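Quick one - first record:
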Amino acid sequence: PYPPQPQPYTRTLTQTLTHTLTRGRIVTLGTWPRGRAQVPIITFSILIGLNMDYDVFLVTGILSARSSGLSNRAAIVAGLENNGTVIGVAGLIMAAAFSGLLFSHTVANQQLGLVILIGITFDTVFLQTMLVPSLMAQLGELNWWPSRFPDAGIDSLDDAGAPEESDSARMFAGPRSDDAEAGGAVGGGVEGGSRRGTPPQRDALAVTL
């Protein structure tokens, strides 16, 4: 199928928010424009790569859940549940690795570590766990346009993690196995007694007479 078309716009939005926050934060802290002029260029490419990396983890998990038959909202929940820990741990490792630059005696290294630390924290804590799932929930099936998925009959996940059928799916699926068994038990009671030990109606009438 074709790649999801609305996704580049949401990625552009998240990238813009990340770079705006990090640039504004280092300006308010007074650490820029002092230092090396190439720091914004270096951090720009690094933050884009990290943002896209975490986004691939999240959207791939959501797409896999949606392809398995879950509805759009249930797929978002499942994807975030399965890959949220991976994104958080990866962000924590990267933040810990680059935070060592804050203790450098070079202003450029301090700026580099500060920008990456702020960008990774904002991306993993807010963007990938709150903003991106919210946008995808609002877009609905437009997330996958022009690809089309069959109508999902699974709207949510129960406590055990098994898919729960929607009302419309139950309506068109016909009688369930337990309902059919119950119906057979009632019919068997009329003819000669149910399978659960209920006495036949004819025998009950004979005893009464």
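second record:
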Amino acid sequence: MEAFLDIAYPVVQDIFGPAGFILGFLGLFGLYPRLVGRAPMLARAGAVATALGAGGFSVITAWSFARFTGVTSGSSPAWLGIFILLAAVGMILGFLSFAVASLWTDAQSRTVGILLLAPASIFAIMLAGTSIGYTTAWSAFVISAGQALAHLAIGTTLRTALAPADCEVPSSDVTAG
């Protein structure tokens, strides 16, 4: 809304945004069992990064909710920066590790592996834009929309496509009866 009407909704940005990332991290944990047997180091690194990111976004969400409900007030404490860093590292390294593990193995489809690169890439672009001071309402809208579409595409692909390991090879035996 802010990109179109100059109306900001901090609750959506500060509470529901990070909470949505937590759900994305929970989805990444669902990939771990299939990947750990085929790419154990990448899967474990991805799981650790995912745990760090989920933890970071959990603290950010809790702090934002506490501020929204009036439990706390004022500016964010300095220690919150540590959790923002954990969330960023977890977001980039978690999705990147699972993407590479998926692409190197046949545990997930190639499409899933490529789509897993999107959240990490989009988040890295957002961080780069923030570091150089380029954070317009339009760029925030495009980045948020890209994140949402990437997560929806990953979920849809995982639910509708079989991984190569799940596909059955048709039998050439024909039984005439």
